[in-house]
Write a structure and sequence with these properties.
It contains 21 helices and 19 strands.
Length: about 600
Amino acid sequence: MKLATALAVCFILVVATSACTRRASEPPPQTTSPDTSASANLADYRNGLSNGDRQTFYHLSEGSEVIPLAVLQSLERARTPQDRSGEGLVAFMDNLARYGFIPDGKHALNPAGLPVGMTVARSHLTNRVMVGFNCTTCHVGELWRNGRRVRIDGGPNMLRLNDLFADLKAELDATLSASDGRRERFLVDLARHRRENDATFPGDRTLAERVRDLATDIELAQAFVAYLKAMPTLKAQSVTQNGYGRADAFGVARNLLFGKNEENLRPQNAPASFPHMWGIETTAWLQWGANMNSVMERNIGQSLGVGAVFDPDTFASTSRLDHLNTLEHLVYKLTRPEWPADVFGPIDETKAARGRDLYDRQCANCHEKPFAVTPSGLVVYQLFTLKETGVSPLVAQNFDDTVIVDGKTVRFAAAAFTALENLKRQYYAANHITEQTQAEWEGRDRRPPPQWRAAMRSTLADADKYPDSRGGRVYPAKPLAGIWATAPYLNNGSVANMWDLLTPPNARPKSFSLGSREYDVEKLGYRTTPDPAAPAPAWELRTSETGNSNGGHVYGTNLSDEDKWALIEFMKKLRPSDIRKEPLRTTY
């Protein structure tokens, strides 16, 4: 046994049975129970999910294993301007809303009172109680107005996940090297939280195994710091910061799947905004660009992106495909959000009626007229070229990049799909998943093979192989029902609100602040100036930075101001059945 480990065992066994390590006059780290704020001023509002659905949706584990719960609960941090007045350190978990997390209360599926999107499960690898994330971390949002909150399930969240990882690394590093009692407090609290978590999440460990776990706490924390320092997503530093509500998902996937070979590492330079999720059951291609049609491969990739662990040699993974299927079908329950008039005020019906006519002429031929609808009800949206859309091309271009695998240069799409397929097949075999269940999980009734067999295609390089993308068509014009709840706009979130989107690109704001959830009911977007009352710090999006271009989508920009306001008013009430035009073709 290493000396450091032996000393840690002795120290932990002593302090775990003693109540005098922290002086009576020394207050414990400050915490804010999620129960006190999770439901405060939350409007009674739903867009498809019941309370029970929400509990499962928010906290069902996908197999993500990021950090032991006890470590997170025991960690302290430096104060920020968003903390209440006082001195000294505070608990790291105090005000996780500073990263954009949405508080949630304690219940059977969330006994630790973690925010929306955080999950807890006992690891199959280490038998420790681990914190992870699921899809709702990024895909559940909130809009605030005059002190009231409207929860939008399936809407984009204003989240900064990379900042959480960076701060975890910094605070753990500071804790392990501290000489002012911080390290000792961490160990004391770690022992206490581990006992509490073992009681809440019972396992079958022996006393000897529990002592062994306690003995490795310091080494575990050190290993976690080393892991974060070497993490491909953080190791390949971002050229452009994600900020709130964005992630360079393809850049993360590239570095995660193939970053073991440092020749494959690329700095992240193409942050994309989190898309909304209602209507996805019948959506043919499942990313911003038309490049993936597979439900299960998409979901496995997403689980890896939020912390599921995999072995690149055997393709064994902690991803829970059964839980991914449960979450997928909860997503299918989502409906487009209705305008909450009791919170945001009533819709001007006269103005909206005028806006309906404008929408029919200005928007519907692209957004309400799909390329095709298959016999199974799958909607193939119209696609447009990079030149036609004029938006940032980097998301599409990066997806076409190559990686080196086993000494060969291959396109990212082909290499990533092969890896995801192998992960899927290994899970099916290891868990004895029947062919019938596989077909159900993959949605083959909606996506029948061979035509809709699971596939990823290089957005640009493969465009001419498919009828909908022929000629370099890559970006879909999706329906806009519920679009009012999905700001900021464009594929990279570079336009703050609907009014700015209807402004000519050269006149759009070149920078704006994010961090406040206060909603502008006129322009349809978040407040764009710093908000001293916000629980999260302000962050400035600058459109001059790589990947942040706010150009493109010039449609409707020549309307009069009166017409623009009318069109915006109609956007508040647009329903999927309001304007529906026939597909361009009857078959795909």
